[in-house]
Amino acid sequence: MTEGAYILVKRVALTFAGAGSTVFSVNRRSFLRSVGGCACATLLPSTLFLGARHAVAIEIAEKLDLAGKIRLADMALGVAKSQGASYADFRLCRYQTEYLEVKERRLEESSTGLSVGFAVRVLLDGTWGYASSPLATDEEVKQATLRAVQVAKASQSLQLRKFVLEDVPVYRDRWDMPMKADPFIIPTDEKIGKLMTINEAALKAGADYATAAFAFVREEKFFASSRGSQIMQTRVRVMPETEVTVVDKATGHFSSRTGLAAPRGSGYDYILGYDFVGEAAKAAEQAREKLKAKPVDPDAYDLVLDPTNLWLTIHESVGHPTELDRALGWEANFAGTTFVTPDKLGKLKYGSKLMNIVADRSQEGGLSTVGYDDDGVRSAGGEFPIIQDGIFVNYQMAIGQAQLIGQKASNGCAFADSWSAFPIQRMPNVSLVPNPKKCSLDDLFADVKRGIYIVGNGSWSIDQQRHNFQFGGQLFYEIKNGKLGGMLRDVAYQGSTVEFWNSMDGIGDQNTYFLGGASNCGKGQPEQTAPVSHGAVPARFRKVNVINTARKELA
Length: 555
Description:
Strand content: 35-45%
Distance between the termini: 63 Å
Number of helices: 12
Structural class: alpha+beta
Helix content: 10-25%
């Protein structure tokens, strides 16, 4: 291993303003410790992604057609094989981004970005090695592959258990996310005009401040493996954000309401089809109503959680706890590991019999929806249950993890957030299955004598084992004797995961389904962010602890 292989470790962060880079130095000891601790998922790009090199990298990548990409992949895979690798794969990625933000009646930000690069991953004697670079040239591909082999060799003495990869079918395919309107060809002025109209509606409805923003990402990935797969795929993400704030000038108190529109795997047609203008006006009215709302009395209440709130509770209390790398102790950077240890597989009564949680990468509009994961595992037909009739039955897994818990194969849950990132286990779309019997929101209210209906997601907190949590929301309403009452404020609910989900005794049907989600789920070190959607229906939970979050002087 050469000195240069460990002096600089670079993490390239894809931001909406473009590609930025952070460089930090480490000594040999800390380098080897980090390599051993994360099974060689250390990033070793050979060049700094700055200035002129950025422009050169883009110019080279933009000239590559599919045949050129295949040629580079064959070169990398051939070098890896000649160095003794039992497996190798090659990813060439392109990310195009745009961010637009309007505050009140002025344009606050308009930025675009383009990031390109490739990565080589090798498995040598059961140990991963990895290297990446923005420069997709013949020589750089060869050198990056040799660096990946060096990393694998340097890490073998620290590898506690060798990776054994299951057989993955070979695919030669192209997958493009269906969409009607490409956001990157919609004129910028038109998109800014839409944001201005949204803000104007909120201001006219009584908001003192209004913010509206659109973010767009086009992700293009070419993947090739030593087993023979060659996959080209493209998907687009649309991420709208709105917030209105009203101020009581007499008291100085203020109240805000953020938008309920979720980010989606979609084209600009999602923006065109959603009533942002109507919601902005309604949000201003609701924010003003929140200022006059009655503070909640802390107590145990029956809760009806709207799917615009429940999706985040699913994410934190079901999605993350059932990631296998957390259960194995590999991931502890974002709120720790998990209480859902392998001995509970097939045994833990996670929730009531109404609780059925499924995972997929095929749901229309899902942020995790894609043809193949970053291990080359096909998504179509790969849907699987995580919780079945209340029982925990499956982990989310990336390639090479299944055999560690006696399973035969991965279930397609690998993702890397940039060309420079090592693919790690990330959530697919994780969703609550609707009630097969007819059940409306009013039906859920009907059997509640004293409760609270919560709409929209707010603050959240969860402990290091994903067991105890506290969640807020955007809007809170009393439920009295089966009927929806007036608005409340300062509400947060607390629970422990298993107790909470076992208290669920009612869920809505397919007509109440909503696809929520987040585009910035954080995990790993160096940190990676992943987009993930969560489908949900309104659900009723009995005797949940509710607290008042306001300071005493504001009560």
